[in-house]
Amino acid sequence: MPLKVNEIFFSIQGESLYSGIPCIFIRLSGCNLRCAYCDTAYAWDDGVHMTIREIIDKAGCFHCRLVEITGGEPLVQNETPALIHSLIESGYTVLLETNGSLDIRKVPSDCIKIMDVKCPSSNEADKNFLENIRYLGTKDQVKFVISGLEDYHFACNIVKNHCMNVPEGNILFSVNTKLLPPHELAAWILKDGLNVRLHLQLHKIIWPQIERGV
Predict the structure, then answer these.
(1) pLDDT in tens, 150-159
(2) Containing domain of residue 16, as a range?
(3) Which of 10, 107, 142, 189 is most open to solvent, judged by the fewest CB atoms within 10 Å of its CB?
(4) Count of domains for the chain
């Protein structure tokens, strides 16, 4: 079965522990959530159908061995795990960005998962499937988008009560700069002595006026 693909492009990795590294992005169409701050709503529906072979051939045009599968929410498509497996078999390091609401056990273990936990400002915090955290490996990462103090306290509580198996350096507090200045989040982290990683969306700093293909 083909997958519905919104776009495939080559850019600088802007989120995760791989931030700053050139990366191929495969943005799949469709999402089961409607986060208040979503910046990829164009991927909810638009896209073209491509076979796994066609996707891998397109990725091969960029001469890069790091690829991220993103969305939307990639796991709403049943063929996504097969795509991940095929990319790994083809010699790629594969990152998966997922919103954390769907079971990640079907994702190949060699895939590096970047899993969101939705905070209250997303209006989707009730969709979190926190059991997923138990299935994360040592290379996987947990990301919280922080828009204010309520989100911060929510994230701190999740870290304390659910992220015991996640390496401290793999917990990302990503600031929603439209609502929260980065220095305020940094001050909260320092005040509370948290061993989490303050995270900025690098691609939005490099290309602030471009919304797609970066």
Answers:
(1) 999 999 999 9
(2) 3-206
(3) 10
(4) 1
Tokens of 35: 């986060």
Which pLDDT tens digit goes with each residue over 82-98?
A: 999 999 999 999 999 99
Beta bridge partners of 146: 175
CA distances from 144 to 95, 106, 148, 186 (A): 17, 22, 12, 14
The residues facing 175 across adjacent strands are 146
**Pairwise CA distance, residues 168 & 64, whole Å:** 29
What's the CATH code of the domain at 51?
3.20.20.70
Paired tokens of 69: 């599968």
What 3-state DSSP class applies to 25? strand
